[in-house]
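User: For a reading group we're discussing how well predicted structures match intuition. Take Glycosyl transferase family 2. Before you show the prediction, I'll give you the sequence so everyone sees exactly what went in.
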Amino acid sequence: MPDVDAVDGDAQAPLPLDDFALTVVVPCLNEADNIHDTYREIAEALGDRVNLEILFVDDGSSDETLARIRSVADRDDRVSYLSLSRNFGIEAAFSAGYRYARYPWVLHLDADLQFPPAEAKQLIARAAEGYDAVFGIRVDRKDPWPRRAASLVHDWIARRLLGIEIPPKATTFRLVRTEIARRVVDLRLGTPYFLATLPRLTRAWTTVPTAHRPRAHGSSKVTVRGLAKHSLDLFFGFSPRPMAAAVWAGLAGLPVALAAGLTGSSALFGLALAAALLALALMGRALVHLSRGQTRPPLFLVREANVPVEAADLLEGSAARVGGGR
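Assistant: Thanks. Here is the predicted 3D structure of Glycosyl transferase family 2, as structure tokens, for the group to look at:
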């Protein structure tokens, strides 16, 4: 496997691996064909190495995902699950898993199995050196070239152009101390973005190269619209530069428009355009400040689970199966 440059923060004291306790959080959206394989691979790769919990989070699936999760949970008491009341999105799904993880470490593993669960041992080994978070970096990525290119552009804009601190080339395949993951969730940011929020809480993070493989079953849930929204949440939520650029563009446009007035009627158009840019920028800035003081809807609501769930996270009237049998 080729080397990948890792970014190392301030590692803490090394940890013993003998009693390493880990919750594998698996967000799922219409992944019925992958549930049994995901469970089997996780159990085979980690069941004899660590104290293990496998926590599936069903993000409002419309297929047999929940039924198949129930079936593996009935056979193995290491399997927990949360079923959300609707599709809240990937950030909400893994946030629910982080909040209700049983053990001191959480491993985020998507149900598409493009990251082999056996690769988790590399993340665990680095975490044992004293890191709070370890992010996997795909080597020989097995995604279509448009997605690979989009990721490179996204990373360059965020880190280089906008100065946002995110782990370079980091993915959702990550191992994080549960207490820190929960701190990120409990911040309840208006623009949640885990990769950008965690470095604001700790410097003790690093990256490691990991294998990647094609999706075996089902189809990707990633859409162009979803990627665009996710990117805009990052760009505008974690950097002041886009808003500042809009303001300066508006200010610069005013003298240009006035100068154009000396030569013809185009001045009206130029002045109106500059004024609109400035007004939009100022309104955007005002809305950001106002939104920070507004009550936000729940990040997620749980309809069904086999673990205890706080009342605030339950959909009203959905407590019958919650926490049953555990």
